[in-house]
Amino acid sequence: MAAQQTSIERFLASAAEAAKVILETVQNDGFIHVFSHLDADGVAAAGVMGKALYRLDARFRIRVTQWVDEKIIGEIVADKPQLVILTDFGSGYLDLLNEKIPNVKVLILDHHQITGILANENFVQVNPHLFGIDGATDVSGSGVAYFVAKAVNALNVDLAPVALVGALGDMQDRYEQRKLCCLNEIIVNDAVATGLLKVEKDLTFFGRETRPIHKTLATTTNPFIPGLSGEEDKALAFLASLDIPIKQGEKWRALRDLTEDEKRRLCSALADHLLSKGLHLEVENLIGYIYVLTKEEPNTALRDAREFAVVLNSTGRMDRPSLGIAICMGDRGVALDEANKILEDYRKNISKYLGWVMEKPERMRELQNIYVIYGESFINEKIIGTVSSIIVSGLANSEKPLIAFANVEKEQAAKFSARTTEAAIRKGVNLGEVMRFASEAHGGKGGGHNIAAGAQVSLDKIEDFVKTVDELVGKQLRGEKVGSDSNA
């Protein structure tokens, strides 16, 4: 415990150093260019940093992108900013940054596994992995940005809920009963202390604020409930058998509208149903921690932090990240209205892609050590990560990771998204390492976390890359080391 506390203190000290860099740049009227990743955590991180800079009356610009590449480097060179801030990525690009822009002041606020060496005094990096803290579960990119923003000005504590949304978007609620812990727990405490958050224990189904109860049951994948998940008519019949009304007058009832007695009956019946299917472990996933943003309107997607994360994810994945950033910075007018429309389109696209994958067996293939989704030119490369996350949730008991790819035709590249299960992690799988080494072996770039990672390779290297990933995962499952020194 003492060692963990020391790690946290050292991390917070590094966040304070980063805050000094920002304050010095602003005091000298320097222009700041912020780059952030396009997923929910990246959009939240951009929102946190944007609000902190706005409050400083800083001169800044925010750009959300899928990765750092030559094009992004070109923008930096052309803009000549006094400071570049990279949020929710950057730690995997140290060598590229050092090669291309060694004389630019760069601040990296990231939580991904670090590749390359930080050997440049112009680069300042805040990353939990430097202090033995797990960036996959204990703090997200928006969380790192939050600690820096809080060190810039204590008033930025009101950005804690946005950081929690980012953490939940990155599925960091992996502790018992879907709890956020470690550095994330400090952010939770900040949000609760300022009256912006209420933490409850409840049924953990997604859509508790906005979806009719039967739709909530029918769309749940965590836990997956055989006979109810994907079966709206059976979900309706299940609720009817429990005498739980699905409407109050003309209004559909959401999970949040159930009485305590109705919740108990529903939970008990679901537990019995899962046990009857032999799914003992799934019963544990029924009840967990719920993060309610108290200042948001009830019955809206922003009230429940997990639903808020999906809103942000949709704006980033659908090429409208500015809407998500505006919402994180406080806009509840036009930006939110537009984001809700984007969310509907996003959900329709996901349903279309999932249906397409399941339509033909060859679109999802099982290899010796992995599953592969061949999204090719049909699935949007910015949504392939969401598709893989949803599908891997149905493989919870498998030790085989899943990789999915979509073609980026204009760049003649394939964008890979890799996800795995807790069972595979326990067996020693580290997708961040696998994607990094496999992509580098075929002239690409990759990295990430042990449980979720990504990569990009040229279109002509797809099959070679897939074969290498399968081999490297096999090595990890056998307890062998992967990397350049292991003949991988």
Report on this structure.
The protein has 488 residues and is of the alpha/beta class. The chain is 45% helix and 16% strand. The strands form four sheets. It has a six-stranded mixed β-sheet. Helix 1 (2-27) packs across helix 5, helix 8 crosses helix 9 and helix 12 (305-317) packs antiparallel against helix 13. The chain is globular, with a radius of gyration of 22 Å.
Q: Strand order of the main beta sheet, please?
A: 10-11-12-13-15-14
Count of DSSP-assigned helices = 18
Low-confidence stretches: none
Measured by DSSP, the beta-strand proportion falls in 15-25%
* Structural class by secondary-structure content: alpha/beta
Number of strands: 15
CATH topology of the largest domain, by name, is inorganic pyrophosphatase (n-terminal core)
| Assigned CATH architecture of the largest domain | Alpha-Beta Complex
- Return the average pLDDT rounded to an integer: 93
Proportion of residues in helical segments: 40-55%
